[in-house]
What does this fold into?
Amino acid sequence: MRPLTLTLIAAIALTGCPKDTEVETPAAEAVDPARTFPEPLEGKTFEVPKPSSLQLANGMPVYVVENHEVPLFDVQMVFDVGSFADPEGKEGLAEATFDLLDEGAGDMDAAALSKKLRQIGGFVGSSASLDGASVGAAGLSKNLEQILDIWTTVLLEPTFPEEDWKVLQKKMVADLEAQDADPNSVALRLHYRVAYGDDYRGRAADAESVGSLTPADMKAFYEKYVGPGNARILVGGDVDPEAVVKALDARLGQWNVAVETTRPEPKSTPFEAATVYFVDEPGASQSVVRTLVPIGTRLDEDYFDLDIANRAFGGAFVARVNMLLREEKGWTYGARTFTYYPHGNGFWGMSTSVRTDATAGTLTEVSRLITEALGDKPLTDDEVAYMKSSVRNGYPAGFETTGALLAEQVEVQRYGLPADWTAKYLAGIDAVTTESANTALKKAIDPNRLAWFVVGDRAAVMDEVLSVGLPVVVLDREGNELERLEPTTPAPAEEAEPAGDDTTPEEK
It folds into this structure.
């Protein structure tokens, strides 16, 4: 298991590919999974900082994680509302509301807020993502009270200035246009659209929806969702829990506005047959290739097993997928598999960018690696031991900053994980065996249900893609279906072991 941060963004950032190596045929010799790994490092003892749990007079929960190494603090008010709550036709509203929140508050405009904060070495900012939003502050512990005054003003008295919105609106539209020109962003958007349809992550802001937003919309969204009944406060750093709660209570203890509470309940689209979803990128020198299949949740008994299995198969530089596509083939600068867990079920997938002439070969070779891992070349003891050691010894680095400590707590609470999730994390990793990792991989990945996504030059690659043996659905950049194409070669029969097989690697 990786720390509770989505690794999906890191995976899609691995773009680009070398252009001076002659492409090999898809039928090249298989990668050897039994290569030599460094000896695992001795595990270090690490105790996860435990938050103090308190509350304000109005019942709002407060969690404090102390870290007295440096005289700094970090405070966040986290809301259980995000872009999933955007009204139809107003996609982008949550993001715009929280982006504009800190552009003017009380009798201060953005310039006055910035000046006050600079004078005391403080920071106040707000933002929204798909699943949540936050208003945060940070600075020197000795200036806690002054910074909290400004933070509270931003939180309780936003003005949503019209002129600042005009500037922000142009930026949001420009960002959307840039995303539409980026094949990786297009592939990710299609990935969500196929997975969710018009629900949850399948919905996305566009120039039209952002262009329709007004400060009045933002004020209405703020009044509907921003209040103590939909929020919690997290504080970290060089603070005394009782003292910081007293300071917060003096400013927010009587805040009692009623708001709506909401939580997404997405239902992802069932993936019934392996299919390639293709978007034309004329003249592209490389293709973005992704694959995706629904999996379980972080509360599943084999969650840790699958996490280690994923790392060994393709989630690390030395894993099988990257070693084949980058080191042996020279088709890409990097390829990774990933797991991620939003609300609802999670997903397993792979992401890379390869040379145009290696597009079909990538589909074939990754499919072969999956079939081998599920069949006669399961994960080895060395692969599993190395990944467990890597996770155990890298885990403490995720808690080096106060912000990281708080982010972990946000994940635990936002997605309904057990309170002791973080404390028991390493024990879950330690319990993984080679057998359990292989069993989890077989359970999670059904090659016959994989959705493949390709953004590339249709004229250059489509004939070879069709020869892989999978049906192709051609989409526009928004995910709307344009055409369905039948494969020119029948898909080979899968020979993977059944999901319930519990044969150990040594017996195979």
